[in-house]
Amino acid sequence: MLATTRLLLLAGLAAWALAGLGVETARTVAAGTAGDAAERAPTAFWRLGTAPPARLAAFLEGVGAAAPAGSVVVFATGDGGGDPEFFQSLWAAYLLPRHRVIPLAHPRARIDGDYLAAYRTAIDHPRAVAPRELAGGVLYRIAPP
């Protein structure tokens, strides 16, 4: 009796998991064929091969070419603070492996930063000098204090 109950519970759990997998797969396929669904996806749900991270990668390619390896790049985004800044700074760290990337909100950003990468925004700060226009944003060199 106990073995039968366990088997039924296990079968029910497996059916529930497979149904959930089917629903999520259908949603993903539908979103992938909807065209602009990837554009509206929150930054936390970006995937390689979609347009939003490709635009960020194009911007960061210019940053990587201009900023020497090993330099500290402070990352700022025009998509707002909080989750977009957090997740986009993680993408920036992934896409700039030879640099130390920290978000603008980091406590040491004003002290340690060598460069400021402003994605989809512009920064007006007296220590941000020598702006360089890149695809999707501006790269600034940060002058010493």
Write structural notes for this entry.
The chain has 145 residues and is α/β, with parallel strands linked by helices. It folds into two domains: 2-34; 45-142. Helices cover 48% and strands 19% of the residues. The protein is built from five helices and five strands. It has helices spanning 2-33, 37-40, 51-66, 83-95, 109-112; strands at residues 72-77, 100-103, 115-119, 128-134, 137-142. A five-stranded mixed beta sheet has the order 2-1-3-5-4. The protein is elongated and about 75 Å long. 22% of the residues are buried. The model has no long low-confidence stretch (mean pLDDT 87).
Which features would summarize this protein structure in a list?
145 residues; 2 domains; five-stranded mixed sheet; 48% helix
Lateral strand order in the biggest sheet: 2-1-3-5-4
Number of helix segments?
5
Strand percentage lies at: 15-25%
How do the SSEs run, as a string of H and E?
HHHEHEHEEE
Structural class: alpha/beta
Q: How many E-type strands?
A: 5
Largest sheet: 5 strands, mixed
Spans of 5+ residues with little confidence (pLDDT < 50)?
A: none
What is the subunit arrangement here?
A: single chain
Silhouette = elongated
Task: Please outline the helices and strands.
Blueprint: H1 2-33, H2 37-40, H3 51-66, E1 72-77, H4 83-95, E2 100-103, H5 109-112, E3 115-119, E4 128-134, E5 137-142
Parallel strand pairs: 1-2, 1-3
Antiparallel strand pairs: 3-5, 4-5
Helix pairs in contact: 3-4
